[in-house]
Design goal:
The complex is a heterodimer of chains A (304) and B (418). Chain A is mainly alpha-helical. Chain A is 71% helix and 1% strand. In chain A, strands 1-2 form a two-stranded antiparallel ribbon. The chains are: A mainly alpha (304), B alpha/beta (418). Chain A: Belongs to the binding-protein-dependent transport system permease family.
C-alpha cells in the first residue's frame, strides 16, 4: 500500500549529505576568519621577512638577510634573554595565585572585601599598573626607596639600572597576573570534591600533604589554564615595558615584541622586513608552547 | 594659452597683495591634517584655518587634528591611502622617506615666487632635497640654555662665555648641592640635543653635518674629542642623577624647585616653566657657550612645516593655503606669545615682544654665523638617530662604555648609509 518512494536521486545533494556537511557549515565562519585573520597574516609576515622594505617604497628581496643580521644584533640578543626572564619569572604568578586563592577560600567575616581587594589589580589597566609601579620605584620619592631607607638600605634606581630594570617590570607584571591566576584557582577550588577531603582527613592527611595529594591534583584543569595564560602573557609583554621604561635604559628592557615594534612601527623604525623577521622568531617560540598546549589538550580528550 | 592664464594669475596674485586677497575663487574641498595637538597650538591653527576659510568662502575646509605622537606613525598610512591636501611635518632629513617615496608634492614653484623666495630664504636649505623644495615652514624655535637667574645671582655667577667658565660655574653650583643641568633622557632625544651642541661647539657645524651625512666615522678622533668634553661634565656630576627615568617634562620640576640650575632645551620649555611658577625675574636664557674658539657658533632651531601630499586632490587650494600660512602677517600672528610662542620664519614678519623670543631671534639672526641645524633626530637619518641617541643615553649613564658604543654606531652607520 505504500506510495512509491521518490527515487533517491531526486533528493537534493544537501539532504543526502546533511550529516557530513552540517558540522562543516557551522565551522565555516570560524575557519574563514581564522584563515583570513591568522593564517594569512602569518604567511604575509614570513614573506615580508625576506625583504628589505620601509613600508612605502619598493621591497627588495634579500633572502635570509634579515635573519643573518639578527644573529649578529646585540639588541636582539638582549630581547631574547629578556623574553626568557619573563617566561621564567612570570610563572611565579601560578603558585602565588594558588596560595592567595587558598587563603581567600576561608569563611571569615569580611572575606568578600578581601577578595575584591585581591581582584583589584586584575581589573585595572596595564597602563595604570605600569604608572603605579613607576612611581613606586622612583629613585628618590618612591615608596620602595622610602621603605628601604627606613631599614638603612641605600636608594636603588630599579628602572634606571640596566641590570635590574627588567626584573622590576616583571614584578609589576606579576601583580595583575597573580590576581588572574588567583581567580582561576578560586573557581577551581569551588569544584574540589568535599568527600575526597573528608576521606583524606580520615586517613590523617592535613596541611601540606592534604594540599599536595588531595587538592592540587583536583586543580589540574585550573593549573593548565593558568599555565597557558601566563606563558602567553609573558611572551606578549609589551604595554608595561612601553609605559615604565620605553625599552630603556639604552634598550636593556626590550623584549621581542617591543623590539619588533621599535624596528617596524615606531617613530624611527619602519624596517618592515626586519620587524617581520623578529615577529617570525617570536612566532616560532610561541609555536613550541602552542604545540605543547594542543598536544596536552588532545591527550586529555583521548584519555576520557 | 596656458602661459597667458598663468601669467594672468600671477599678475592677479601680485595685485591682490595690495587689494586684500580678492583673487580667483577657490572651490571644492580642502582637507588639512595637523599634528598640533596641544591646546594652544591647536587653537592657533584652527583660528588661522578659519581666517583662511573666510577669505575663500567657496572652499569647504575640513581640519583633522591628530595627536602629535600618533601622527608620526599615521602619516605613512594617510599619505599613501587617504591623502589630505595639506599636512604638517618637519624639515630636513625627517621628510626624506616621503620625498623618496614620491609622497610629497614638489613645491619649488612656490619657492620661485618672489614673495617666498625673498622672505623664507633662511630655511630654503632645510626644505631642499635633490635641488627641489618639498614644503614650506610655518614656525621655528631656538634651543639654548634656560637657567635660574636667582640661583646664579645667589652664587655670584654670570652667564658663561666659554667652556672653562661653564665648568667653573657648574662646580660652584654642584658645591651648593644642586645639579648644574636637569635633563630627562627616558625618550632619548634630549641627549641628542646635548650632543648637537657639544659637537657643533667642538668641531663646528660643517663637521656635524658631515657626521650626519655619514661621511665621518663615529670613532673619528674629532668625535671622540666631543665625547671627552661631555665626559668632563658627566664626571664632575653636572647632570641630574637618574635622568634615564624621566621624560623631558618630568625633569622640569627639578629646575622649578631649584634642585637644578639650568636646562638645555627648546623654547617650548618656557611655557611650562612659567606655568609652574617661575617668573621672568627667575628665568633667563643664554646661548650655549663656545668650546673651541676657532669654530663659529651654530645653533639648533627645528622648523615645523606644511606639505602638500602628492596624492592630494585640491593642490591649487593647498598651494594657496601654503602661501597664506607663510605670509608675513600670518606668521607674525600665529607665532606670537598668545599663540605658538615661537619664531616666525618669514623675514618680514615681526617677533612678538617676549623676552625669550627676542633673545632667541637676536641669537639666531646675529650670533649663529656657523649655521642653523634642525635637530639631532631631524638631521640624522631616522635609523641612525635612533641607535645613536640610545648610545648617547648609555654614555651619559655609563661613560666607560664609550668605545663599545662608538663601534656599534660605526656598524649601524655602514648599514644605514648604503
Amino acid at each position: 500500500m505504500t506510495a512509491p518512494n521518490p527515487a533517491p536521486a531526486t533528493r537534493s545533494w544537501y539532504k543526502r549529505n546533511e550529516i557530513a556537511v552540517t558540522p562543516w557549515l557551522f565551522l565555516a565562519p570560524a575557519m574563514l576568519f581564522f584563515a583570513f585573520y591568522v593564517i594569512w597574516p602569518i604567511y604575509q609576515s614570513i614573506m615580508i621577512s625576506f625583504y628589505d622594505w620601509d613600508g612605502l617604497g619598493d621591497a627588495t628581496f634579500i633572502g635570509m638577510g634579515n635573519y643573518v643580521e639578527l644573529m649578529d644584533d646585540g639588541a636582539f640578543e638582549v630581547s631574547l634573554w629578556n623574553n626568557l626572564k619573563w617566561l621564567l619569572f612570570y610563572l611565579l604568578a601560578i603558585p602565588g595565585g594558588l596560595f592567595i586563592a587558598l587563603f581567600l577560600n576561608q569563611t571569615v567575616t569580611g572575606i568578600r572585601l578581601y577578595k575584591s581587594l585581591f581582584f583589584f589589580p586584575f581589573v585595572i589597566s596595564q597602563v595604570v599598573v605600569g604608572l603605579v609601579f613607576s612611581w613606586f620605584y622612583l629613585p628618590n620619592e618612591g615608596l620602595l626607596n622610602g621603605v628601604l631607607g627606613l631599614v638603612g638600605l641605600g636608594p636603588i634606581n630599579v628602572l634606571g639600572d640596566p641590570d635590574l630594570a627588567t626584573y622590576g617590570i616583571i614584578a609589576a607584571g606579576l601583580w595583575p597576573q597573580t590576581a588572574y591566576c588567583m581567580i582561576l584557582y578560586l573557581t577551581g577550588l569551588n569544584a574540589v570534591d568535599p568527600e575526597q577531603i573528608e576521606a583524606g582527613r580520615l586517613d590523617n592527611a592535613k596541611g601540606w600533604k592534604m594540599l599536595w595529594y588531595i587538592i592540587i591534583p583536583q586543580l589540574k584543569p585550573a593549573t593548565f589554564i593558568a599555565f597557558v595564560v601566563t606563558i602567553i602573557g609573558a611572551l606578549r609583554s609589551f604595554d608595561l615595558i612601553s609605559i615604565m621604561t620605553n625599552g630603556g635604559p639604552f634598550g636593556q628592557t626590550r623584549v621581542l615584541s617591543f623590539y619588533m615594534f621599535e624596528k617596524a612601527l615606531s617613530e624611527y623604525g619602519f624596517r618592515m622586513g626586519y620587524g617581520a623577521a623578529i615577529a617570525v622568531i617570536l612566532f616560532l617560540i610561541m609555536l613550541v608552547f602552542i604545540a605543547y598546549f594542543l598536544w596536552s589538550m588532545w591527550r586529555e580528550e583521548k584519555g576520557r | 594659452m596656458r602661459f597667458t592664464t598663468k601669467s594672468m594669475a600671477l599678475a592677479l596674485a601680485g595685485s591682490t597683495m595690495l587689494a586684500g586677497m580678492a583673487q580667483a575663487e577657490l572651490t571644492g574641498d580642502l582637507k588639512i591634517f595637523l599634528d598640533t595637538s596641544n591646546p594652544a597650538p591647536r587653537a592657533t591653527m584652527e583660528k588661522m584655518i578659519g581666517d583662511f576659510g573666510a577669505l575663500h568662502p567657496g572652499l569647504n575646509i575640513e581640519t583633522t587634528v591628530i595627536d602629535r605622537e600618533a601622527y608620526k606613525t599615521q602619516i605613512r598610512n594617510f599619505l599613501t591611502a587617504d591623502s589630505p591636501d595639506v599636512a604638517t611635518w618637519y624639515a630636513a632629513n625627517r621628510m626624506t622617506p616621503y620625498v623618496n617615496a614620491g609622497l610629497f608634492e614638489d613645491v619649488s614653484d612656490l619657492w620661485a615666487e618672489p614673495e617666498i623666495a625673498e622672505n623664507l630664504s633662511s630655511t630654503k636649505g632645510a626644505m631642499t632635497i635633490d635641488g627641489k623644495q618639498w614644503g614650506v615652514p610655518y614656525t621655528y624655535y631656538q634651543w639654548g640654555i634656560y637657567y635660574r637667574k636667582d640661583i646664579y645671582a645667589e652664587l655670584g655667577l654670570n652667564e658663561p662665555a666659554n667652556f672653562d667658565e661653564m665648568k667653573s660655574n657648574c662646580q660652584a653650583i654642584i658645591d651648593s648641592g644642586r645639579a648644574c643641568y636637569t635633563i630627562g633622557s627616558k625618550f632619548l632625544w634630549t641627549a641628542g640635543g646635548w650632543f648637537d651642541y657639544l659637537n657643533m661647539r667642538t668641531n663646528g657645524f660643517d663637521f656635524h653635518m658631515e657626521l650626519a651625512a655619514g661621511n665621518v666615522k663615529w670613532t673619528d678622533d674629532r668625535v671622540r674629542a666631543t665625547f671627552a668634553n661631555w665626559r668632563e661634565l658627566i664626571d664632575m656630576g653636572a647632570f641630574l642623577e637618574n635622568h634615564q627615568n624621566y621624560s623631558w617634562q618630568e625633569a622640569l620640576p627639578f629646575m622649578v624647585k631649584g634642585e637644578a640650575a639650568a636646562y638645555l632645551m627648546g623654547n617650548f620649555a618656557v611655557a611650562p616653566l612659567r606655568e609652574a611658577g617661575l617668573s621672568d625675574d627667575q628665568l633667563d636664557f643664554y646661548q650655549f657657550p663656545a668650546i673651541n674658539p676657532d669654530v663659529a657658533l651654530a645653533e639648533d632651531a627645528p622648523t615645523d612645516t606644511f606639505h602638500i601630499p602628492a596624492n592630494a586632490s585640491n593642490k591649487e587650494a593647498a598651494r594657496e593655503f601654503l602661501r597664506y600660512a607663510v605670509s608675513a602677517d600670518v606668521q607674525t600672528e600665529i607665532n606670537n606669545g598668545d599663540n605658538l610662542g615661537q619664531l616666525p620664519v618669514n623675514a618680514s614678519a615681526s617677533v612678538d615682544d617676549d623676552k625669550f623670543l627676542n633673545e632667541g631671534f637676536e641669537m639666531l639672526s646675529a650670533n649663529a654665523s656657523g649655521g642653523v641645524a634642525q635637530f639631532f633626530d631631524r638631521d640624522f637619518p631616522a635609523e641612525m638617530a635612533a641607535e645613536a641617541m640610545q648610545g648617547l643615553q648609555e654614555f651619559m649613564v655609563i661613560p666607560d662604555n664609550l668605545d663599545d658604543i662608538l663601534n656599534r654606531l660605526n656598524k649601524v652607520q655602514e648599514r644605514v648609509y648604503k
